[in-house]
Design a protein that fits this description.
The chain has a seven-stranded mixed sheet with strand order 8-9-10-1-11-19-12, with helices on both faces. A six-stranded mixed sheet has the order 14-18-13-17-15-16. The N and C termini lie far apart (46 Å). It is of the alpha+beta class.
């Protein structure tokens, strides 16, 4: 079976500083100007390939995918459809009849930013670093960060200088997506500096090159003029962590940055009226909460359904988030192929909520604790959203105590498989089907990721079958069947899907706002 042309292989996830920007944009090093991005992250993501994921998907978006390439990548140069997978460092590939053996034909003439030629040995070195404990360059920390994406791989080998073969443990419908995240470092640079110091001297084949790092403050990159996909237009790319939304807006208005991620919803209209660009697009991203079903009364499905009927998602999206998000009534956001409009059961219905609570034996309601991040990758304005949920749930008798948690601490608990600070409910954001390995992480039996002690054998079976299915249409059908069960059992409080808003200075041009968490920065320029 050939799979070497751009197509949507439905894939899917979890979902990833300064309190004010400092300094000015500074002089550019090329005709395309200097692009300075105010991220929502509280720190600079890791600069060693997969280590960027430690800060959530914002690290993948702005660091991993800028310094490095995988064998595949997302199609981010269009904005009308959910991006499929297209060639990266591999130009084409085939699969065996049983769907387990993949042969990748590598791009010729590519060099790493340190001048090292890219070839099959580079791929084997990169994968040994993550998967081969006998390799002298095996890196346990990176292996752990990559485990989500490398888990399907059983073996890999070089066929010749331009060809590698990967064998999976079972047929894998999302291997091509996984390989996008398994980016390739320069073997020469890793050997020269060692695993621990490579992040201070990163070299990849990506569109940008590392220039300098001020820990916790600023990462500066410059264009890779020899980038195989075409050199970026900007003269310099600067990343600054600014976790506070008000501080990001202030930095944009003062000219200290010329691009900010997720402006505060209250600032959207004023920024637009002041001449800034406000871009958005619906995409595969969910803000939701997980109920701990080991705790009464969340172990009763009627209570979980009651909470979903109690909240007014439309009001949260319209009044609190000012149209920067859409209400969601199920796990699959409307932008995904897996979304089924017939599955949107949970409309705002407080009377129905009270009826269900009475049926569950808690007619007067009950008290619960809710953990929410104070900020972080893709989390919108989490505390105000949690406060709105608190007020809405109180109207049906569910009394919520909010626990505010730093984003990295929340992630650490979730990835360790435990409730965040012992809370009965935890809220956060995630990419869903565009990083499909995450879906199985939440649904599979034995997964180390915290699932609120919820498990459905049927959902596990359907999602496993979907993972093994390469045909996109069949995969959608299987996931829709699973999604209907997820909605019925209501392990989550479905809240909103944001529209990926970002604010840009008037002179930032050329950005394609995709229906994706990720973004292509090679088309962007600053100035006329």
């Amino acid at each position: 079976m050939r799979l070497n042309r751009p197509r949507t292989l439905l894939s899917a996830v979890l979902t990833a500083g300064l309190t004010a920007a400092c300094g000015t944009a500074g002089p550019s090093t090329g005709s395309g100007g200097t692009l300075v991005i105010g991220m929502t992250a509280s720190d600079i993501p890791g600069t060693d390939t997969v280590m960027a994921f430690a800060h959530g998907f914002e690290g993948e978006r702005f660091v991993n995918f800028q310094l490095y390439d995988g064998l595949t990548r997302y199609d981010l140069k269009q904005s009308t459809r959910t991006p499929g997978i297209v060639p990266g460092l591999a130009t084409s590939w085939e699969t065996s009849r049983d769907g387990r053996t993949w042969t990748f034909h590598l791009r010729r003439g590519v060099t790493f930013s340190d001048g090292t030629p890219f070839d099959a040995d580079s791929v084997i070195f990169a994968y040994d670093r993550l998967l081969n404990k006998k390799s002298p360059y095996y890196y346990p920390e990176a292996a752990g960060a990559a485990a989500l994406w490398s888990g399907q791989i059983r073996s890999y080998r070089k066929i010749d200088a331009g060809t590698v073969e990967i064998t999976t443990k079972q047929p894998s419908g999302h291997l091509l997506t996984d390989l996008t995240f398994l980016t390739i470092p320069s073997p020469t640079a890793v050997k020269k500096h060692g695993n621990q110091r490579f992040a201070q001297h990163p070299e990849g084949t990506g569109p940008f090159r590392f220039e300098s790092l001020k820990p916790g403050q600023q990462l500066t990159m410059v264009p890779n003029k020899n980038y195989w996909g075409g050199a970026p237009k900007v003269g310099k790319l600067v990343l600054r962590p600014i976790p506070d939304a008000a501080a990001r807006t202030a930095a944009l208005r003062s000219g200290q940055v010329n691009w900010i991620e997720y402006p505060s919803p209250d600032d959207v209209a004023p920024l637009r009226s002041s001449g800034f660009q406000l871009l958005s697009n619906n995409y595969d991203h969910l803000w939701y909460c997980t109920f701990d079903q080991a705790v009464k009364p969340w172990n009763d499905v009627r209570v979980r359904r009651a909470a979903n009927y109690a909240i007014d998602r439309q009001a949260i999206a319209r009044d609190l988030l000012k149209g920067t998000a859409d209400p969601v009534h199920q796990h699959a956001p409307a932008s995904t192929d897996q979304h089924d409009p017939a599955n949107d059961a949970y409309k705002h219905d407080p009377a129905k909520a009270k009826e269900l609570l009475a049926q569950a034996g808690v007619p007067q309601g009950f008290s619960t604790t809710l953990a929410v991040p104070t900020g972080g990758s893709g989390n919108l304005i989490p505390v105000p959203i949690a406060t709105a949920l608190q007020a809405q749930l109180a109207k049906v008798g569910i009394k919520v105590q909010i626990k505010k948690v730093e984003w990295s601490a929340l992630l650490a608990d979730l990835n360790a498989g435990k409730p965040v600070q012992g809370a009965d409910v935890q809220c956060a954001s995630t990419v869903t089907f565009q990083a499909e390995a995450l879906v199985r992480a939440y649904w599979a039996k034995g997964s180390p990721v915290y699932k609120g002690h919820w498990y459905s054998a049927r959902v596990d079976s359907l999602s496993e079958e979907a993972e093994r299915t390469l045909d996109p249409v069949k995969r959608v059908s299987l996931y829709r069947q699973a999604e209907r069960i997820v909605s019925d059992e209501a392990p989550y409080l479905f809240v909103v899907s944001d529209r990926n808003p970002r604010a840009l200075a008037a002179d930032v041009q050329g950005l394609v706002q995709p229906k994706s968490w990720f973004v292509d920065l090679t088309t962007v320029r600053v100035g006329k």
